[in-house]
TrEMBL record:
<comment type="function">
    <text>Catalyzes a salvage reaction resulting in the formation of AMP, that is energically less costly than de novo synthesis.</text>
</comment>
<dbReference type="Pfam" id="PF00156">
    <property type="entry name" value="Pribosyltran"/>
</dbReference>
<keyword id="KW-0660">Purine salvage</keyword>
<dbReference type="InterPro" id="IPR005764">
    <property type="entry name" value="Ade_phspho_trans"/>
</dbReference>
<dbReference type="InterPro" id="IPR000836">
    <property type="entry name" value="PRTase_dom"/>
</dbReference>
<protein>
    <recommendedName>
        <fullName>Adenine phosphoribosyltransferase</fullName>
        <ecNumber>2.4.2.7</ecNumber>
    </recommendedName>
</protein>
<dbReference type="GO" id="GO:0003999">
    <property type="term" value="F:adenine phosphoribosyltransferase activity"/>
</dbReference>
<dbReference type="InterPro" id="IPR029057">
    <property type="entry name" value="PRTase-like"/>
</dbReference>
<dbReference type="GO" id="GO:0005737">
    <property type="term" value="C:cytoplasm"/>
</dbReference>
<dbReference type="GO" id="GO:0016208">
    <property type="term" value="F:AMP binding"/>
</dbReference>
<dbReference type="GO" id="GO:0002055">
    <property type="term" value="F:adenine binding"/>
</dbReference>
<dbReference type="InterPro" id="IPR050054">
    <property type="entry name" value="UPRTase/APRTase"/>
</dbReference>
<dbReference type="GO" id="GO:0006168">
    <property type="term" value="P:adenine salvage"/>
</dbReference>
<comment type="subunit">
    <text>Homodimer.</text>
</comment>
<keyword id="KW-0328">Glycosyltransferase</keyword>
<keyword id="KW-0963">Cytoplasm</keyword>
<dbReference type="GO" id="GO:0044209">
    <property type="term" value="P:AMP salvage"/>
</dbReference>
């Protein structure tokens, strides 16, 4: 079994959550089994150990991006910065608001989280509409960092986020997609 199929076999689909008609892709089974978790992390580590892709910082999006991102940063020997929902960071922040299907949300980043010239990989568990990742990218760029790539375990291409992110010029790396499921 290849890596993508192995990881896919450990993602739970929860129908009608959090709303009727939604097929929620639950990554928690990937984290519960130490062997599966190792395969998941090692896949990202091997990619970003490559000198031309190696970041100086990993930025994780609230909240599941923290899990993958912090372990990835540790394994690569680079720093980790959290991009949090508004009101969760205790120091001076920059913020970015983005549109949701119904309303908007705001994410924040400490003003000293990255430096101009830092090469950042921005990571989350999945890409749906792309709004959170786009807002995270804008925050990092406000502080002078370069987002070299957006990364996620799962892409939900039917929601259009990955296309929107690529059209904006962001390189993307995802391990698998759930198109048409």
């Amino acid at each position: 079994m290849d890596t993508a199929a192995y990881l896919r076999s450990h993602i739970r689909t929860v129908p009608d959550w959090p709303a009727p008609g939604v097929m929620f892709r639950d990554i928690t089974p990937l984290l519960q089994d130490p062997k599966v978790f190792r395969v998941l992390i090692d896949t990202f580590v091997h990619r970003y150990m490559t000198p031309e892709l190696r970041p100086s910082v990993i930025a994780g999006l609230d909240a599941r991006g923290f899990i993958i991102g912090s372990v990835l940063a540790y394994e690569l020997g680079v720093g980790f910065v959290p991009i949090r929902k508004k009101g969760k960071l205790p120091f001076t922040t920059v913020e970015e608001t983005y549109e949701l299907e119904y309303g908007s949300a705001t994410v924040e980043l400490h003003t000293d989280a990255v430096k101009p010239g830092d090469r950042v990989v921005l990571i989350d568990d999945l890409i749906a509409t792309g709004g959170t990742m786009m807002a995270g990218r804008r925050l990092l760029e406000k502080l002078g960092a370069t987002v070299t790539e957006g990364a996620a375990i799962v892409d939900l291409p039917e929601l259009g986020g990955s296309s929107k992110l690529r059209e904006s010029g962001l390189e993307l790396f995802t391990l698998l997609d759930f198109a048409g499921h």
